[in-house]
Amino acid sequence: MALEEIKSRFEGNWQCVQTENVEPFLEAMGVNVIKRKAASVLKPNLIITVKDGKLEFVRKLPMKEVRNQFALDEEIEVSEEDHKYKAKVTYSDGKMKIELKATDGKSKDNVVIREIEGDNLIQTATCDGVIAKTTFKKS
Known about the structure:
Number of helices: 3
Mean pLDDT: 94
Strand order of the largest sheet: 4-3-2-1-10-9-8-7-6-5
Oligomer: single chain
Radius of gyration: 14 Å
Low-confidence stretches: none
């Protein structure tokens, strides 16, 4: 079952160790310059858990915590600050893919892919052809 594989491969506390191209990605997303500058220097923690048949992702930042729960292959509505999306998580070939479709008329569609490479979790986010990469190590 996909959730069992996700649990064995991805579940845990992950510490950001490297980011690449975050500020241009956030610019493509329409994030204002002040938030882009702040976000480009932050090193978030990511906590992934599987419970009750659902995936939970928690991003911990110094000033906030963002928590989302998903059932695989089911579209849900999510919001972060003033951005609203319909989001769906799928899993295949060892990769978790989150497709976010903007629903508020101002945000932009984007895709986040998470996969394990060696001891690292690699997160690749794409918006309008601009790609940001974040590398996490299990803590």
